[in-house]
Amino acid sequence: MSKEKFTLHPISAVINFIKVLKEMIVPLIVVIAVNGFGGGGNEGWTSYIVYIIYAVLLIAMLVSGIIRWKRFRYWFEEEELRIEYGLFVKKKRYIPFERIQSLNYTEGILHRPFGLVKVKVETAGGGATKEADAELTAISKEAAEQIKKEMNLAKNRVSESEDQDLPLQLEEQVVQQRKPLFRMSQKDLLILASTSGGVGVFFSGLAVFVSQFSELIPYETIYNEIIMFIRFGALLIALAVFFVLLVAWIVSVAITFINYYEFTIRVEDDEIIITRGLLEKKKITIPLSRIQGVRIMENPLRQLTGYATVIVDSAGGSMAEKDEKIRLLPLIKKDQITPILVQIFPNYEFEASFTRVPKRSRKFFYRLDFLWIIPVAGAVSYFFYPFGLLSLLLLPLSFLLGAWQHKTAGYWMDEKQLVIQYRLFSRVSLWVEKKRIQAMTERTTYFQKKAAVSSIMTTIKSGVAGSTTIVPHIEKKDAESLMEWYEPTRKESINIQKEQPF
Amino acid sequence: MRQEPINRLSEKGLRVWRIYGIFQSLIALLVGVGVGVINYFTGQHLWIYIVDGIVLFLIGYLLIYLFPKIRWTRWRYEVREQEIELQHGLFIVKRTLVPMVRVQHVDTEQGPILRKYDLSSITISTAATDHTIPALVTAEADELRGRISILARVAEDDV
Predict the structure, then answer these.
(1) Residues of chain A found within 8 Å of residue B159, distances taken between Cβ atoms
(2) Which residue among A446, A465, A489 places its CB closest to the CB of B80?
(3) What is the ipTM of this complex?
(4) Fewer C-beta neighbours within 10 Å, C or N terminus of chain B?
């Protein structure tokens, strides 16, 4: 085993610098803009002090980027990937190869001209520390390949020492590229981009931005200008709002287009490999053993046009940042889903005939909403009479939504898996294997008890936490048979086949 | 009908919950007294005093007497070889099954009030969920923790 220590490509100094700069750029722009607007008021050197501070900061950031690159070392020793890094304090991190779950590669704009990649190393734990377990900012593709090779070598050695049967040639047959299972067409990509909820994302981003720098924004000036603006009339405002929405939409279309460009998935060595991106090529690897559940989501608009999204829940790791819901098929015609999923998940049965919810439990789908709608609508109607009366429309609307949810809800199970279908707005069908369910709860309220129905809550692992899905208001006896289905003591142990639990 | 789990919590647990109830009622009492004082200085309406008093009494009755009683009677648990079953809930009855294979670790915990009554709570964690049995006699809880951790180790995934 070589103990040669490797460094990152010098470009990572620039990447470090840009990364810090990105976090600073917004306040910088705001401050410059504010000073520019305030112009004329304060003269002399005081107005330059901000710029001087920023210049100093900029240089400091650049220097720290260079130092961080200089200090970074990685090498392979004793079946471990060892990393040494740190700006002021030297830190070392040793990651045993057998604990590495996946290596994810990203090619940014800066990486591409030099044939470099960013490598994210992920381990099974990864919960406590928010960042990826290790990140090599920029190394050559060969070096990335070498890490993978060392890892496979170490893993084979470990399994070899455990049972002698495994031949060493394993790595030879490992490297066989397969044809992609799915490649998103340009047309679908465009549809995805233009119908995705990216607008909301954009606005929430905007809200975050505003809230973060609210101290720097001259509210009084803006307020005065708004007052001025109102005098120009409502039409202008409406136009402006429309314009902003349009721009936001275009931006979100562009962002989605860039992020999901050339979206392909393929399966290699029990791993799903997703590649996507126009400017920044991302390669994400998900070991199949980590997948806890498969969801098919159809929002009403897409349900009408026959499109759906497939999402998988994955355990541990940090690659999808917030929760580990990874878009496996961002947009696909419904009838094409099953053929693809069958190839990826041969253990699942994708033909389901759902048991629906009894008619008498329909009231449970909207009655609770009435509890808050009636007082709220009442108050609104009273205080904003007569237009407030419009809020009473919420009642029939929530009734209709409830009836719709009631119609959609259902479940189906066979020996090994459970399928749950439900709707908030989008229709969701969740496929989950019994062995992936962490706990199951039967939940009965007083009113449900009287109507002889109950709900079943199933929890699977998703990311570092859990994700709970409810089979709502089904027949009491169905709920009990579901609990019995899940109860280990009740069932005969037919299958002796062992699987790694998660 | 599926059978209810057989084991109950310690009787002392009910007493501890009553104490918790007293603490919660004290907060309500503070608010209630505040309302009374404001009323004294502003309007001195008799009906406000009366309503205030009735509400306070009701809160006390519910938090100290009724709710702990219902919760205690409802709480059942059973640790079998292959799974743990819990039943609890005040208004909503929840029955939870946790297979032994899924159990990752078991903790027991003891706050100052629980310690005074020689009680412990025991928390069973899976990869995604936590389940707490709130009031068991400490010796019993320790024994149970040991048992669960042995069973969890023995249990094999045979699915």
Answers:
(1) 416, 433-435, 495, 499
(2) A489
(3) 0.87
(4) N
Closest CA to A318 of A502, A466, A126: A126
Boundaries of domain holding A390: 360-404
- H, E, C per residue of A119-155: EEEEECCCCCCCCCCEEEEEEEHHHHHHHHHHHHHHH
pLDDT digit string (tens) for A138-195? 999 888 888 888 888 887 776 655 544 444 444 444 444 567 888 888 888 888 877 7
Q: Does A473 touch chain B (CB under 8 A)?
A: no
Distance (Å, rounded) from C-alpha A221 to C-alpha A476?
Answer: 62
Question: Residue A241: what residue type?
Answer: V
Residues A502, B127: C-beta atoms closer than 8 Å: yes
Does the CA dihedral A347-A265-A176-A3 come out positive or negative?
negative
Q: Could you say which residues from 299 to 328 on chain A have a Cβ atom under 8 Å away from some Cβ of chain B? A: 315
Same domain, B88 and B149: yes
Look at chain A and report how many structural domains it folds into. Answer: 4
Task: Report CA torsion sign: A485, A491, A494, A497.
Answer: positive
Domain of residue B32 covers 7-73
Are residue A425 and residue A470 in the same domain, yes or no? yes
Pull the structure tokens for residue A269: 């060595």
Considering only the beta carbons, identify the residue of B1, B96, B159 that sits closest to A435. B159
> Of the candidates B129, B77, B5, B144, which has an alpha carbon nearest to the alpha carbon of residue A460?
B129
| Amino acid making up residue A490 | R
Residue B107 CA to residue A346 CA, distance in Å, equals: 38
Report how far apart the first and last C-alpha atoms of chain B are (Å, whole number).
26
Which tens digit of pLDDT belongs to each residue from A443-499?
A: 999 999 999 999 999 999 887 778 899 999 999 999 999 999 999 876 544 443 444
Lookup result for tokens 């009339």: A233
Tell whether A229 and A375 lie within a shared domain.
no
Residues sharing a CB contact under 8 Å with residue A415, sequence separation 6 or more, in sequence order: A434, A494
pLDDT score at A235? 65
Same structural domain for residues B83 and B127? yes
User: Where are the alpha helices (H) located in B1-136, listed in sequence order?
Assistant: 11-42, 46-60, 67-74, 112-116
Q: Search chain A and give the residue with CA nearest B125.
A: A438
B104: left (phi over 0), alpha (psi -120 to 50) or beta: alpha
Closest Cα in chain A to B3: A480
Structure confidence by residue, pLDDT tens digits, A89-124: 888 888 888 778 778 888 888 888 888 899 888 776
Convert A84-99 to b/e letters by CB count within 10 Å (16 or more is b).
Answer: ebeeeeeeeeebebee
Report the number of distinct structural domains present in chain B: 2
Tell me how far apart the alpha carbons of residues A15 and A106 are, in angstroms, rounded to a whole number: 13
Q: Which range has the top average pLDDT, A1-10, A158-167, A210-219, B146-155?
A: B146-155
Q: Which pTM value belongs to this model?
A: 0.74
Q: Which residue, among A374, A363, A340, has the nearest Cα to A445 in the 3D structure?
A: A363
The closest CB to that of A438, out of B82, B129, B158, belongs to: B129
- Residue A94 and residue A138 in one domain: yes
Residue A213, token pair as written in the block:
């720098």
CB distance from B52 to chain A under 8 Å? no
